[in-house]
């Protein structure tokens, strides 16, 4: 596999490997980007919430983006849901709920979100994207973030797949293709 020359190889995992209990999966970003991006399953869903918090603190995470619906978070990770509600996490959490296996209801707001994340990464922010399993909705958003950072659609898809995420449904793949197409026009 060839590597894009303007992309760094900063893709080492933080903590344990994903097949163990690690939450954070690193995504290589363009070398000119000062921040870091990780993909994750929902904190508190695979292991204790404390495991995620320890990894996130070691990685100096400054922003978490939650793509899961509140009812899904409550069902899958009640401790995480409670900390979201109480605002006691050590970093801000942006919530942009998308139905499981679905696509964002508002493409314009989704595009604005992914551009905001890309801007934060340019400024040196260290961010985590997650949904429930950290695959479909996370992959869709991460591809859009990489595209906003200047990567080609094919390159964004490849890097996100290598990090363990992807669009899970034809609707998600079509949605992200529309985002790419609209940006080209």
TrEMBL record:
GO terms of molecular function: phosphatase activity
UniProt entry tagged with the keyword Transferase: no
Superkingdom, natural source: Bacteria
Keywords carried by this UniProt record: Hydrolase
Domain Tyrosine specific protein phosphatases: from-to ranges: 108-139
Stored PROSITE patterns: TYR_PHOSPHATASE_1, TYR_PHOSPHATASE_2
Chain coiled-coil ranges: none
The protein's name in its UniProt record: Tyrosine phosphatase family protein
């Amino acid at each position: 596999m060839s590597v894009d020359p303007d992309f760094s190889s900063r893709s080492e995992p933080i903590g344990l490997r994903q097949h163990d209990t690690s939450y954070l999966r690193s995504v290589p970003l363009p070398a000119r980007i000062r921040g870091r991006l990780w993909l994750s399953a929902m904190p508190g869903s695979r292991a204790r919430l404390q495991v995620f918090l320890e990894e996130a603190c070691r990685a100096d995470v400054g922003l978490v983006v939650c793509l899961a619906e509140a009812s899904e978070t409550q069902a899958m990770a009640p401790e995480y849901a409670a900390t979201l509600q109480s605002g006691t996490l050590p970093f801000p959490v942006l919530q942009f709920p998308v139905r499981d296996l679905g696509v964002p209801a508002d493409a314009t707001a989704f595009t604005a979100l992914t551009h905001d994340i890309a801007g934060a990464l340019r400024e040196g922010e260290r961010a985590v994207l997650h949904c429930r399993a950290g695959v479909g909705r996370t992959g869709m958003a991460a591809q859009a973030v990489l595209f906003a950072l200047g990567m080609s659609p094919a390159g964004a898809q490849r890097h996100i797949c290598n990090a363990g995420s992807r669009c899970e449904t034809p609707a998600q793949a079509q949605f992200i293709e529309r985002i790419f197409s609209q940006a080209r026009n």
